[in-house]
Specification:
Blueprint (H helix, E strand, L loop, with lengths): L8 H17 L2 H10 L7 E4 H7 L5 E9 L9 E7 L1 H9 L3 E4 H7 L6 E3 L2
Parallel strand pairs: 1-2, 2-3, 2-5, 3-4
Amino acid sequence: MKQTESTNPELIQLIKQLKKAGREENVPIWLDVAEQLSQSRSHRAAVNLSSINRNTKREDTIVVPGKVLGTGSLTHPITVAAFSISETAKAKLDAIQAKYVSIPELVANNPQGSNIKIIR
């Protein structure tokens, strides 16, 4: 059976960047995120804010290798990095002064991947 690959150039570039950062800095978290983003769209993470709220504490930094959805609420400010985010989720993050950054920004700001949780 033929395995299909993503044709999204933004996603392909992000996966290459994560693999490079993971190998150069010897940081397994970036390799793990790249592997999860390499999966088909139906197998990528789609995480609701309610799940993020249950699994994080104040001021945590998380990465979602997929999309953040706006169902539920978030009660504490955190930093979220994801491949994509819904408009509802972005509005709810802004309302509580939580911060949304892209995954490349997170890699640039924290190349060692310290104190970052992966939420799937």
